[in-house]
């Protein structure tokens, strides 16, 4: 199978190329930034470039995007050009070339304001049925690109799987208060309870999506670590998360004390991956139980793949306040 991977110099694109490059598949990696994992340098917004790259392609893994960290540093038009027009170019050329499987990497950020309940309400239970309420140009353009994917299935029967990934970046948290009060690995470990996923598990979800998309037709999937919580936990999570987590993981207190770590006092949402596990047959390995056990064994808690890909950052510029500038 000939697979086109967009964004091959980025976090997920590189991880996909690393995983697939020693298989029987022919891999074509494209990106605007040259790297050891990129075969052709160019933009998804360049229709002629995409036309050339799509020749003979059987499947597309579309990870290229402008991200949330670019909201302050890039114009709205640049977001539209990359995230919407770029996706449209790929979809149109995929149809013209008879591509059998198109996997679009989206984000749980599209849910926007739906992720933050009003004070006093339970934590939000986020499934594929949650209605997106985008709160920035990133969310708007990713939601629009999802709509384009569904349109191309409806009108052209292009098999499309939309994977809405939760956090997986290795960079520091963008919230200054959180950075000041928690160690970085402490933050990421906590997030595996409700809003983070390991890049190895994301790669596996993409590979399953290539395989399953023709039979599925078109569908959306939340790709996040399996949460230990149920909907009954939501009221307590919103005001006393440590008590809920402590009940589910009695060994957490001693391990966190040993490291000088702490649990977040409140969780505002829980991402639910039931649909991806049931429909794609996805079995994510890295959940909070797995992470906690590795911490107790003094083993690096995340995947070797995450370590190999490492931190890339989102800008060439270094900022004094956090990993990237954030609007108030």
Describe this structure in words.
By secondary structure, this protein is α/β, with parallel strands linked by helices. The chain has one domain (about 1-310): NAD(P)-binding Rossmann-like Domain (Rossmann fold, 3-Layer(aba) Sandwich). Helices cover about 40% and strands about 15% of the residues. The chain has a seven-stranded parallel beta sheet with strand order 3-2-1-4-5-7-8, sandwiched between helices. It has a two-stranded parallel sheet with strand order 6-9. Helix 1 (about 10-20) packs across helix 7 (about 200-215) and helix 3 (about 75-95) packs parallel to helix 4. The mean pLDDT is about 95.
Radius of gyration, CA atoms, in whole angstroms:
20 Å
- How do the strands of the widest beta sheet line up side by side? 3-2-1-4-5-7-8
Tally of domains: 1
The total strand number stands at 9
Query: Could you name the CATH topology?
Result: Rossmann fold
CATH architecture: 3-Layer(aba) Sandwich
Please state the structural category.
Answer: alpha/beta
Major β-sheet annotation: 7 strands, parallel
CATH superfamily: NAD(P)-binding Rossmann-like Domain
Terminal-residue CA separation: 46 Å
Counting H and I runs of at least 4 residues, what is the number of helices?
Answer: 13
């Amino acid at each position: 199978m000939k697979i086109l991977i967009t964004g091959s110099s980025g976090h997920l694109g590189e991880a996909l190329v690393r995983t697939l490059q020693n298989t029987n598949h022919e891999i074509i990696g494209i990106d605007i930034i040259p790297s050891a994992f990129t075969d052709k340098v160019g933009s998804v917004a360049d229709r002629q470039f995409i036309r050339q790259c799509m020749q003979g392609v059987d499947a597309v893994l579309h990870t290229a995007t402008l991200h949330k960290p670019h909201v302050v540093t890039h114009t709205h038009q640049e977001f539209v050009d990359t995230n919407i027009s770029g996706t449209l170019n790929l979809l149109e050329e995929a149809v013209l070339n008879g591509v059998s499987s198109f996997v679009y990497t989206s984000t749980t950020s599209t849910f926007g304001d739906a992720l933050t309940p009003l004070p006093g309400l339970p934590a939000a239970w986020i499934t594929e049925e949650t209605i997106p309420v985008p709160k920035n140009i990133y969310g708007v353009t990713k939601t629009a690109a999802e709509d384009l994917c569904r349109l191309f299935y409806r009108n052209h029967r292009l098999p499309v799987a939309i994977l809405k990934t939760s956090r997986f970046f290795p960079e520091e948290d963008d919230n200054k208060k959180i950075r000041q009060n928690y160690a970085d690995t402490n933050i990421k470990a906590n997030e595996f309870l409700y809003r983070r996923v390991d890049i190895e598990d994301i790669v596996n979800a993409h590979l399953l999506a290539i395989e399953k998309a023709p039979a599925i037709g078109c569908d959306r999937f939340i790709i996040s670590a399996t949460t230990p919580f149920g909907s009954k936990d939501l009221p307590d999570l919103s005001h006393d998360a440590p008590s809920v987590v402590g009940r589910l993981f009695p060994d957490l207190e001693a391990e966190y004390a040993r490291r000088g770590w702490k649990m977040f006092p409140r969780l505002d949402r829980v991402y639910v991956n039931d649909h991806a596990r049931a429909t794609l047959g996805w079995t994510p390995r890295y959940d909070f139980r797995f992470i906690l056990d590795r911490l107790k064994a003094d083993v690096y808690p995340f995947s070797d793949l995450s370590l190999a890909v490492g931190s890339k950052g989102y800008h060439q510029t270094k900022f004094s306040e956090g990993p990237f500038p954030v609007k108030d």
